[in-house]
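Please, structure for the following, as tokens.
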Amino acid sequence: MERALGKVLLIDEAYRLAGGQFANEAITEIIDSMTKPKFMGKICIVLAGYDSDMDRLLQVNQGLSSRFADEILFRSLTPTECYKILGTKLAKSNISLPAFAPGATVVVEIENYLQKMSELPGWGNARDIETLAKRMVQVVYQTNTSGENLAIRRDELLKCIKEMLAEREAKTKVVFQTPATSSQPMAPDSITQEPPSFKAGNTAATQPTEDSVMADTESTPNYSSDEDDDNPHSSRDIGVSDETWTQLQKDIIAMSDAATLHQQRTDHLEELCRESEAAQKSEQEGFARQKAADKLLSEQRLREQLEFEAIQAAIQQAKDEEARRLAEIAKKEKKELMARLQAVWEEEMRLRELERLRAAREREERENERRRVEEQMELMRESQRRDQVAQKKLREMGVCVAGYQWIKQSGGYRCAGGSHFITDGQLGF
């Protein structure tokens, strides 16, 4: 009460104060404090919970009804709204609904089924529609394996809705039974029904919790979006502006993209390492081939030298003009042969040098790329370490009493609820 002075004190699941020694003491303390000058007119108290459970809570103490006279009831979605949400959910999986004319018989039939489900206890509104959409996605992919022109047929659509309605009706018969009438306050553990509407005193209401005995997590109302499903603590705080909330959602997406980019770069570095090992192996094989070629060239040169010596001996042995003529011819042929061999050898050396330079450039480029990726990964690891230090400081500071996750934004951090912002300077960065 003292920490909420000048603010709003929201008591979620307030119906749990309907029974138990400590719960009764808490109710008595709340009523007593509201009449004290220290708190009267200086604090807004909101009791939030399910409709029928809140009615039982107000009967626990006569002073509650007079002090919490304002009520806000949240209605369930209409069948038309549910059908529109169903189309949106399926569109995210690139699946289209059949095109029905407004007021067509099948549209009326579908809306009647949705109306029946919304009248059942534990109807989850948008969350149950999302569950229905996931079931339809499974049906479509089972019947269409090509992944093209995905659309759910009319018979499949009606079958999924009928099956879900039958399942919910069966659960209702087993779990949602009419509680016995009792004049005693209802203990928190005895609550077995979760009505689809909420009730809150004064100005606000909160979403239901997990106290229902239904094991099925789809049995409680939930109007959260897909982003909220991924981050259960990202419910929008009261008073957060649209601009702040939009920026916060963008930063959450950016944080997810950064993690994806980190994984991509890690995969890229591993690919570079594999390529480097393959290139090194190829280079070693090239050296082996070059060594074999050098050996063959040396043997060829040795044979040529022996042939040259044989020619020289023939020249020396020539005693007459014919011998000298033959010797001159042999000398000429040798000279031409040596010239050809020299040209071949020079071309071989030139190609070998070009190959060596190319391999050296590739090794240098691979090494530079590896160092660049390692530097980027080190910067990312440093950023993660800094973020961990910041998250630890933020938790120790206790600025966000709701315990929301802190999201990095420009110049500081904002809690996932959107109400609190801590600058980098306040964190010592």
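DSSP finds ten helices and seven strands in the chain. The first strand starts at residue 8 and ends at 11.
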